[in-house]
Structures are given as structure tokens and as C-alpha cells.
Amino acid sequence: MRSLWTRLKDPRAQVGAFMLAAIVGLFGITGLGVDFGVGFNTERRAQAAADAAARAGAEMLPDSSATNANTAASTLAGMNYSATLYNQTSCPSITAQGTTFSGTLQGSPASCFYSICSNSSGFDTISVVAQRDQPGIFSKMVFSGKKRATASACPVRSHKSSPLVVGLGQACGGSACFHGNPPVSNDTTYQVCDSINGGTQCGGGSAKNFMVVDLNAVGGSSSPTADGCLPGPPVDSCWSSMEGLLTSQPLVSAFDKLPRVPTRIAGTGSKQVQYTKVNFALATSQPMPIAIGNPGGGGGCQGGGSGNTFKLQGAGCPQVVGFGLFQLVSFQCVDAATGNNAGCSGSHPVVKSITGHWVQRTEQVNSCLPGAASDPACRFFGTKTIALVG
Amino acid sequence: MIWALAQFGILFAHWIILTRAVSAGARHAAVCRFGTGDSPANVVVNDSPGLGLSTGQVNVSQAWPCSGATSGVTQVTVSVSGAPCQSFNIWFVGSLGSICLSASSTEQVE
Asked: Which residue among A8, A143, A207, B19 is least enclosed by CB atoms within 10 Å?
């Protein structure tokens, strides 16, 4: 019998050996390529499922419960991919405060990688990691590992914010009054009634043309309103009566783009104010939506009202009778706690005055939609931002 | 083998384009309540250049714009099924058949 070395000296044997090596190599590379493709597919679909789940969960926050966010996230993850969502006990990208929801997503095993938590009051952040084991088809002939695709998404939803209200019929001083048609095209400076110094600037003879109205019961009201759905006669939960306006006018996109941050508290004692910081600097490139109202009208702050106008709870109880788009040109800020001019980069900056012109307005929007209180769309009056940050 | 790798690469690239376009269409459809700008089907077609898709081949489960009552309570699915198709041909063999791509994405209506 010839030895192997002797056989390999035969050219036919050499060709055969090279062919064998080439075939093994080709199949190996092909198999790895296919496995890579399948793994890439798994990872992309898991990422899509995590993104959709996180967005859907964030949509439920902070209005709804963490359980509802859990349900929404699970539903969307399952509809996009049968990836399994897990439970994790900490927020990866924020400093969690208060209670962290520690349930498990529906149908998921009680292990890692899912959280709903908050860096403020209420749950406003959800982090989702979707995983799916993807065993190799060809590579498992070489090694017995499983490919695990992991995807994460962490949307942050801002809290409800406050619109500015420009007053009608107030001592607004000449050209600053918001009356007349068509909309004013020349730039005008308006003073913002900002509740500084106990809110004394928001009523009586010192009433200004603008008022900051907080739909979350800032300014002395004891019962927070539900995201723009307001209580009490004669216009119970009537924010949704703005639905037609808000969905058919450019106000929608303007509201959506207006950047805001959660409500904050500044100062102490009688000078303590609660305010919503509006990033006006980013709003100068596009018209700002501003509610048009009657600051101090309606008599009292808890119910009542007159006619078909709106009545808001909060400082001054303004009646909102319309909306307008205001093209902001410039603005000045003061410190919310002291009232001193501190610039817009101070510790507690609030806007003292804004200068610009109106590009569109609608007044006396009176009609309430029957049964609109249950319309979930009404909660969209407040601005919000859902951003995938992971 | 080289031919097969090239064909697979082309098909893979088309699949990536299609899935990304469908995802973009679904995210666009999620704000159907506001309903401004291009329809989700147009977004899918515009985001998938070179695939030869038409808006009629894109299925969107919600109208554009959709009712305000859909916000937060339902989902919208954007899908493309059976298109585009890629034929596999070898000049000396002829057609070996074709593979049609499909993609789907679901988002919660905002």
C-alpha cells in the first residue's frame, strides 16, 4: 500500500485535495454568510420591535399607568416581531427617582431588560430591550453557539406644558392690544404675565397682555386637570372641542414642534412660583401657537364661566377663546424666583416679554363636541416629545 | 458562486431598503390623526428608490388622515407584500425563478 505522501505526489490526488479544501471553504464561507444575513435580519427586526414598543409605551406615559404602558409596549413588540421583552430593574440612561415600575411585560419570562421609570413626577420614561435567540444554521456545525440579537430604545416623554394666553379686553396699552383684523404683521412687544412675585402682575391694573396658563393646575388651583380636559360647567371637558381646530390648522404642527420641559418650582414663600420653562430660543424659527383668552374673566377660579367660552383653572382663570400663531422675533427673560433680570440662561429663567407678530389667529371657538370628554385626542393639547434615545 | 453571491447581495440590499421604507411609512402613519403632507404609501415609495414600487402596492391599515378617535387606542400597519420581485437568470441556463420581498411594520397611532 502506498503511503499518503506517495499518493499526494500524484497530480490527481493533489487536485482532489485542493478541490476538497476549496469545497469545504466555499461551503463554510457561504454558510457563515447566510448565518450573518439571518442574524442581521433578526437584529433589525428586534430593533424595529423595540422601537415600536418603546414609542407605544411612551405614548401611554405619563397620563396612563405603567401597566398600560406595559400592555402597549408588549402589544406592539408582538405585532412587529415575536421578540421577547424582558424586565429590567433600572433605567439605563436617566437617574430614576421615586418608584420604578417593576412588573414584567405580558408573556415574557421574569428576567432582564425592561423598565418603566421616571426622572420626574410620574412615569415618563420607558426603556425596552428586545432579544431573540437565533441559532446558526450552518455555523452550528462548527460551533454550538446561538446568536442573540439585542435592541434597545428609550423614549422620554415630556410632561404637559402650558400655553401662553394673550388677553382680550385688558389694559394692554395701545398697539399691544390684541384686537382687530387682519392679524398684525408688524412686530410688537408684549409683556408676559409670569406670576412672578406672587402673581401680582397677573391681575388688576397691572394685567399684561400675555398670561402663562398652566393646564396642570399651577398657580393655586388644588385639583390638577386632566391634560387639557377641564372640569366644571358650562364647558365640561371642553378642550376636545378644539379638536377640529387643532387637527385642521397649522397649530398642530406648531404645537408639536414647540420645545418644552417639565414644570419646575423656583423661589420660596410668597415668591415661590411654579412655572413651565419654554425654550423660546428654539421657537423663533417658526410660529408659536398661543391661546387667546381673557385673563381674569369668568369670575372665580373653580367653575363658573360665562357663555360658551373656555374656563381654565389656574392663576387668573382666563377664558380661552381662540388660538393664534405668533412669529417670535425676540424675547427677554427674568429669574422666576426673584424677578430680576438674569437673562435667559439664568437659574430659573422665564420669559418677561416677547416681540413678534401674528401670522394667524382664530377667536371665539365656542362649540363643544358632545361626548368629547372621552376623546383621547383631547390629551394632545399639551405638547410632548417622544424621542428614541437608545 | 460569484453570480449567486451577487444576486444575494442585490436581493439583500433591496430587502434592507424595503424594510426601512416600510418602517418610515409606519412611523409617518402613526401621526395619521394630523394627516398632513405625503400619505404613508407615498413615503414608502419615496423612501425605496429603485425598487419600482407604486402606492397601490403599499397597504396601510388606517385612512390618511385618520379619525381622531384612533389616537392611542389602536395601531396602524404598513405593509408591502409580494413586491418587488427579483428574477434569477443565468444566460446559458435561463430563468431559475424569482423571489418577491415582503415587509411589514406596525406602530401605535399617536
From this structure: A143
Backbone angles phi, psi at A306, to 5 degrees: -140, 150
> How far does A44 lie from chain B, in Å, by closest CA?
9
Q: How far is A354 from A202, CA to CA, in rounded Å?
A: 16
d(CA A200, CA A347): 22
pLDDT per residue as tens digits for the range A355-389: 777 665 554 332 222 233 333 322 233 334 565 65
Which residues of A fall within a CB distance of 8 Å from B107? 52, 55-56, 76
Matching residue, cell 387682519:
A182
N- to C-terminal Cα separation, chain A = 67
Q: CA B8, CA A37: separation in Å to the nearest integer?
A: 10
Pairwise CA distance, residues B27 & B31, whole Å: 7
Cα A33 off chain centre by: 41
Interface residues of A toward B, Cβ cutoff 8 Å, are 26, 30, 33, 37, 44, 48, 52, 55-56, 59-60, 72, 75-76, 79-80, 243, 247, 252-253, 256, 375-377, 379-380, 386
Give pLDDT tens digits for A76-102.
777 776 544 444 433 333 323 333 333
Pick from A26, A52, A60: CB nearest B107: A52
Contact A253 B34 (CB under 8 A): yes
**Which ipTM value was assigned to this complex?**
0.78
Taking the CA atoms of B36, B39, B44 and B48 in sequence, report the sign of the dihedral they define: negative
* Alpha carbon distance B19, A363 (integer Å): 45
From the list A139, A142, A145, A85, the residue with the least C-alpha distance to A115 is: A85
CA pair distance A129, A116, nearest whole angstrom: 12
For chain B, 110 residues long, the average pLDDT of each consecutive 10-residue run is 79 88 90 75 90 90 71 77 78 78 85
Strands B58-60 and A84-85: unpaired
- Dist CA A82 CA A122 (whole Å): 30
- Say if residues A330 and A220 touch (Cβ distance below 8 Å): no
Which chain A residues contact residue B8 at CB under 8 A? 33, 37
Pairing of strands A188-193, A210-212: parallel
